[in-house]
Task: inverse folding
């Protein structure tokens, strides 16, 4: 017959409490030395289980999100952004915009950090337990188009609806034909006022006709994106990458030449 400790481990595993099974013996010793009450000991056990579950949930959400690694607020260098953008990013990282299905659009020239900023927001959302998806716009468009051809577009849209925010990176970077434009518009219309979309783009809104081709469709798409949105306007910023590359290749300034010696210096009066 198994001893009590072995039986406890078996019961904890059957109850799917792996963290408690792993730490209860050590915690019991610490509780005895610290004269913890039964309630305090139980609290520490449950806290250990909840912490491990939170860690596993975050790891799972990060794996499913497709977020680029190391693109977080820790590596974003917020001081490079104008004060208004800095304030907007600080508010967005709280995640409250998801409650009202507010969209986020980061518009700027290549290299200004718009994708990094959106990825950092996505990472914060995952840490808070939100389910998000990061995808290049071109990849999602092809997936939507294939689903439409296979008559399973509603199923794919329902699957995407599980994500509280879908991050579309580089919308407009790749030119789309009319069929691709139609499925992208369908996706945006499906999420309108229900789920958030975050978009990075190097195009101002007046150039979105290059994405959606038809003027009416372009206006309708912009309306659905902008109606409830936060706009991160980075168009006036210079490329960080170009600036860093320029700094690395700028030759050092040569030292000033020394003035010629005065022939009278050092001679006796």
Result:
């Amino acid at each position: 017959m198994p001893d009590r400790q072995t039986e406890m481990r078996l019961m904890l595993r059957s109850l799917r409490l792996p963290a408690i099974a792993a730490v209860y013996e050590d915690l019991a010793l610490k509780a005895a030395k610290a004269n913890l009450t039964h309630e305090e000991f139980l609290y520490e056990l449950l806290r250990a289980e909840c912490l491990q579950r939170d860690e596993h949930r975050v790891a799972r959400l990060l794996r499913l999100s497709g977020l680029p690694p190391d693109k977080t607020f820790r590596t974003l260098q917020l001081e490079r952004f104008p004060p208004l953008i800095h304030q907007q990013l600080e508010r967005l990282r709280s995640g409250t915009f998801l409650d009202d299905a507010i969209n986020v659009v980061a518009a700027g020239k290549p290299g200004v950090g718009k994708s990094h900023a959106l990825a950092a927001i996505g990472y914060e959302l995952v840490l808070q337990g939100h389910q998000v998806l990061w995808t290049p716009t071109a990849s999602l468009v092809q997936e939507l188009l294939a689903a439409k051809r296979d008559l399973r577009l509603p199923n794919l849209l329902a699957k995407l609806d599980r994500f509280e925010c879908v991050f579309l990176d580089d919308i407009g970077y790749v030119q789309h034909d009319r069929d691709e434009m139609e499925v992208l518009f369908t996706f945006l219309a499906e999420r309108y006022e229900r789920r958030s979309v975050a978009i990075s783009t190097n195009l101002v809104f007046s150039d979105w006709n290059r994405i959606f081709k038809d003027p009416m469709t372009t206006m309708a798409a912009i309306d659905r994106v902008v109606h409830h949105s936060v706009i991160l306007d980075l168009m006036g910023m210079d490329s960080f990458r170009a600036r860093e590359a320029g700094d690395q290749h700028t030759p050092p300034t040569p030292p000033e030449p020394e003035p010629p010696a005065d022939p009278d210096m050092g001679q006796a009066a």
User: Anything to note?
Assistant: Residues 262-269 have pLDDT under 50 and may be disordered. Residues 38-65 form the longest helix (28 residues). The beta strands are 103-108, 132-136, 165-169, 196-201, 229-234. DSSP finds eleven helices and five strands in the chain.
